[in-house]
């Protein structure tokens, strides 16, 4: 099951590792897994080697498309300005050479004017003044263009980040619950989420490299005109540095990749220790010191590895840089010797030395920049490989059935068995029962019996591992899953408490009707949420939850009433409440059920409850035990049968006596 689903979902993912990627000691990762039972696995190892790295470069074109689409005018202006800037350095240097040659010429004139005023008056310095003005104008232009470019690219980066985040959220919405619950997927999602903002520098980097390349070509042409082999010498002395950079970039990525699970664990511990969600328990159980210690331990291990790479990188980098500098001074000595021999002018010397220095810096920047871009492209793989993850639930492209309106026969479970992804245990097995159209059934059973799992299968959040579920005689898989879910209103026991307004919390049941206040009010009245809203200072517009300023926290039962209203927001053909009244007081519970009965009349509904007083209101009760239907019938029939139902009912009834 696992390998099948993983293959299906992540078909174009990097290949699974035969051995661990460079960086993390495996024992450490294994320890991490043992410590937190639910700790996610690391997922596929980082791509290694030249082939994988060049494969990661394939993400550059789609990324550039993403950049272009984020804002064509901004992207076009950035490119144009970069190109113009590319040729400014050589122009500046050349004008500088002309200035020096002119100064040398003027200095050698007989009968030179003795003051600046006389120089200007004589007109002898006109050409020099013009050259200085030209250099000044070029310097100003360079500065202005530089700022405009960084403004354009900064704005573009923000747009790209927004576009990537939107694409990420949209894509995540197309994936299945089973995919989300997979720890490997969660690692992948985490990496992708980081990349929506983390890869922004690559825009400036690629653009900067294109600019540097153009500048380099201009300098190389100038230098090659004097001595082509000097250019070759420069390139050769820089190669070791380039290879070193490439190697360390790759290692750093491999580490970051392999440590995704641990990074998530670190974030989890930090969030638990310093987040509002667990604050209550952290205080009561005095978990602060324990969590800080765990954080310190995890963080230390994480950062020791990155420090090690940084240290080696610095040492080798210094060595390679010294080699490059050696090449530079050898060439410099050659040019000076030529000037001394009178083969070139002083202006030529400054031009060549300047060109040479710039060329060296450019070559260095380009080579290491290329390696950095390749490294960034490795991270892009995180983003784009997420976009390639596909939903695991089969969706035949065509001929999807619409939801039957009205339902004729209802749902039928035929020998259904289900194992959660990654689990060897059957959550439910050999399930065969009918949920007839218009009928209300109750699912009862002890914890872990499989009640919620049945509901998830019914809503097609998962597909049965074996057997099949039909709706009006057709396999559930033949229906359009979105249409199916649109007609099924489920409120899960672990419903989400959204940090939104009270009205929006109800409207999530039918988000397109979020501005339909009368509808929201009606749903609130039906679920008793209207009483909750009446007590809020800003009524329906009150922000609920404590996450944001002005938010008002609700009690468990009050949240539950808001959640139940979601079910009434949709005109669902099938209504499912999974332990909807666990937090409600006795009066509210009785009332909620009375209303549920009224509102579900004529609709197909499923009620999950541990309270028998509620379950007995159903037309039929299914008693589940260890993932199987143990018995079914009406309340009276099941009591007469003296099975588990009668036993549990008696236990509960005794508690009230
Ligand atoms: N997401 C999941 N991944 C793996 N196993 C799961 C998952 N959810 C539930 N299970 C397992 O499936 C079995 C059935 O769980 P289910 O939630 O359906 O029980 P339930 O009858 O609704 O229990 P309760 O009364 O406690 O709500 C349990 O053994 C549980 O451990």
Provide an overview of this structure:
With 657 residues, the chain is α/β, with parallel strands linked by helices. The chain has 3 domains: 2-23 and 45-387, ABC transporter type 1, transmembrane domain (ABC transporter transmembrane region fold), CATH 1.20.1560; 401-487 and 574-657, Rossmann fold (3-Layer(aba) Sandwich), CATH 3.40.50.300; 495-571, P-loop containing nucleotide triphosphate hydrolases (Rossmann fold, 3-Layer(aba) Sandwich), CATH 3.40.50. Helices cover 62% and strands 9% of the residues. The protein has helices at 2-9, 26-35, 49-56, 60-70, 72-86, 88-107, 116-122, 126-174, 177-181, 183-198, 201-226, 228-258, 260-273, 279-284, 288-340, 346-387, 451-458, 481-486, 502-507, 517-527, 529-534, 556-569, 586-599, 612-615, 635-641, 644-656, and strands at 410-418, 428-436, 440-445, 466-471, 474-475, 488-491, 574-578, 604-608, 620-625, 628-633. The strands form 2 sheets. Strands 6-7-8-3-9-10 form a 6-stranded mixed β-sheet, with helices on both faces. Strands 2-1-4-5 form a 4-stranded antiparallel β-sheet, covered by helices on one side. β9 (620-625) and β10 form a beta hairpin. α4 crosses α8 (126-174) and α20 (517-527) crosses α22 (556-569). The longest helix is centred in the middle third of the chain and has 53 residues, at 288-340. The protein is elongated, with a radius of gyration of 35 Å. Mean pLDDT is 81; it is low at 1-48. Adenosine-5'-triphosphate (ATP) is lined by residues 181, 420, 423, 427, 445, 447-453. It is found in: Cell membrane. It holds the Pfam family ABC_tran. This is ABC transporter ATP-binding protein.
